[in-house]
Every structure is written in C-alpha cells, then in structure tokens.
Specification:
This protein is of the alpha+beta class and about 260 residues long. The protein contains six helices and twelve strands. The chain starts with a strand and ends with a strand. The mean pLDDT is about 95.
Length: about 260
C-alpha cells in the first residue's frame, strides 16, 4: 500500500501537475494539502477519471485538505477536535483498507510575534491529544501524513542559524513535534534514511536550483503501521516541473498484513 503526502499549493493552479504525478507515481492513497478551494469546488471528476475516490475539506482561497484513494474511503472525519471555534480546514482522516489515514496541514506560525504562533502551538497540542486519546487506542495501523511546518532538527533545514527564530524551527515547535513522536510514532523517512534531504524549496532566490530547502512534509506511523513499513522516499521530480508546487511529494509503502 503506497500512501503519499503532497502540499499542492492550490489544486486549481497545479491540477495538470498533480494529475501527471498521479499517473506516474500511482499512489494508492494521496493526502493533499493547501488545496485552496471550497469543498464543493474541488475538481473531483478529474480524479475520478483516474479511478480515485475523493474526500475533500476546503475553504475559500486558503488551507484545505483532501484524500484521494484507489480504494473506498470510509468513516471520514473533518476538522481537528479540541477547539469548536477553529474553522480553518486543516485536518481530514478516514479509514482505507483497514488503515486509518490522517491528512494534516499544520499552521505555519509566522510571524512568531503575532497570534499565529500561539495558534500553531495550540493546534499541535490538540493533534497530540487526538492521537493519544482517540487514534492510538484503536490499535489500528495509523498513517498521519502532511505538511507539518516543522523541521524536526537542524539537519532538516539548509540554514539552521538563519532559521533559528522561524516558527518552523523554534524550540517550542520542535518540542511539540517530539511530544507527538514520543507517543510511540515513527517518522517514516528518518527511520530509513540518515542523509540530508528536503521536501520544500521557496520560489524565491533560486532556492530550488541551489537545493536550499527544508524538510517539513512528514509521514508519522503508529506501531501497527511501522511494523509494515517497507519504504519511504521523497519524490524530487515534481518540484522541477514547470509551474510546480513549492513542495514535492513524500510517500511510504506498507506491506500487506
């Protein structure tokens, strides 16, 4: 079972690139972030033409997450619990072939001297509580994929000193990421790789051409899923395409039960 995560940075602007990637990479499940469209306007028909079922949770112009699957998408839940006043479309989860998958677009948190940073930290606390209190007790294989807007260590950012005060790398952000991991989750890519690699390159200043990026797109696995972990790779190819997203896909492969 191949499960990928991809921040598409506007599904309407990037639709040809996303369809091209799906045909080339053929994930069983694709978790999309930053679709930047309302749920009703998500281009469902184009994905169904490639034999993908669709579950989307969007809002106008910002945020938004979706799940594409070659298998049925069951027991869909949208919105991260814990704050009934939070209307930002940043979380979706469902069950696919016995695996509980969650699509995450974690808040960026910049500038840190605004209310955006406390919102980010509170959102991470809510995610940890949901995983601890609701997801892990099911003892299902769980895959939580998405744009976490967190560089877990200095090895995950091209300029650690320059990013030291950025919300992606602040100690408070990394602490909460560790708290999430300490629930017993496995960060799939780092579990299988020791090298430096990135999943996001800013459009500005030739960052892509100089490979000056950050690794903020992660797939976290519960123990039942990590026992089935076969591979995890960053697909750099889509980032080099014309009119590409500033992120590139990351995927895991899980063995059958």
């Amino acid at each position: 079972m191949k499960i990928a995560t991809f921040n598409v940075n506007s599904i309407k602007a990037r639709l040809p690139r996303v369809l091209e990637w799906l045909e080339e990479s053929k994930p069983d499940v694709a978790l999309l972030q930053e679709i930047k469209t309302q749920t009703a306007d998500f281009p469902e028909l184009e994905f169904k033409a490639l034999d993908y079922n669709v579950a989307a949770y969007g809002q106008k112009s910002y945020n938004g997450v979706a799940i594409l699957s070659r298998h049925s998408i069951d027991d869909i839940r949208t919105g991260l619990p814990g704050d009934p006043e939070d209307e930002q479309a940043r979380y979706i989860e469902a069950t696919i072939k016995g695996v509980r998958v969650g699509g995450i677009y974690l808040p960026n948190g910049n500038p840190v001297d605004t209310d955006k940073f406390p919102y980010k930290l509170a959102w991470m606390d809510r995610l940890t509580a949901h995983v601890r209190d609701t997801l892990l007790p099911t003892e299902m294989p769980i895959v939580l994929g998405g744009d976490y807007n967190c560089c877990p260590t200095d090895r995950d950012v091209y300029d650690p000193e320059g990013f030291a005060s950025d919300a992606l790398c602040r100690p408070e952000t990394r602490q909460r990421f560790r708290e999430l991991m300490n629930l017993g989750l496995t960060e799939a890519w780092r579990a299988l790789h020791s090298e430096i690699a990135y999943s996001y390159w800013d459009y500005q200043a030739g960052r892509w051409n100089r490979d000056e990026g950050v690794r903020i797109d992660h797939l976290l696995l519960s123990p039942q899923a990590s026992d089935r972990l076969v591979a995890c790779e960053i697909e750099r190819g889509p980032r080099g395409k014309e009119k590409a997203s500033d992120h590139t896909p990351v995927y895991v492969e899980l063995s059958d039960d």
